[in-house]
Amino acid sequence: MSELSVAMQHYLETIFDLSSQGTGARVSDIAARLDVSKASVNNAINVLTEQGYVSRKKYQVVNLTPAGSEVAHFLENKHSVLKTLFVRVMGVPDPVADLDACAIEHIISLETISKIHAFLKRNEISVDSEEI
After folding, report:
1. CA-based, 20 to 30 A from 22: which of 12, 37, 54, 91?
2. Do 64 and 49 touch, CB atoms closer than 8 A?
3. How many separate helices (H) and strands (E) can be counted in the chain?
4. 63 - beta bridge partners?
């Protein structure tokens, strides 16, 4: 995952979220969600396809590959752990915690997020994520 830029990670998360019904994600929906042009989405999809994270046939929906799903799910778990820490332990308002978790999830180390997750579990603070 280290070869993925923050922008590419955002694309994976967005595709993951939009395709949660198992239907894949449309380029226009990705563009609207990220507030970027369809051309930008197509460029990103080409990069993610080359790296093996998504698959798409021309003019079809975008689907995550197993590797793409794994990365997106991992990012979602990191986000959930961070947001739980901010809201439930530190008292940060939900909208602020969500934005901060989104920013930090892309740069925080596996070691640190694992320690935060363990801290929350030790203190019996439930997290809406699986093991990190």
Report:
1. 37
2. no
3. 6, 2
4. 55
pLDDT tens digits along 54-66? 999 878 899 999 9
The CATH class given to the 6-64 domain equals mainly alpha
Q: Is the dihedral of CA 40, 6, 58, 51 positive or negative?
A: positive
Using alpha carbons only, how large is the chain's radius of gyration in Å?
A: 16
For residues 55, 12, 53, 106, the Cα torsion angle rounded to the nearest 10 degrees is 170
Provide the token pair at 68.
Answer: 């793409």
Q: Which CATH number fits domain 70-122: 1.10.630.10, 1.10.1040.10, 3.40.50.1980, 1.10.60.10?
A: 1.10.60.10
CA distance 55 to 71: 15
Does the pLDDT value for residue 131 go beyond 80?
no
| pLDDT tens, position by position, 21-65 | 778 899 999 999 999 999 999 999 999 999 999 999 878 899 999
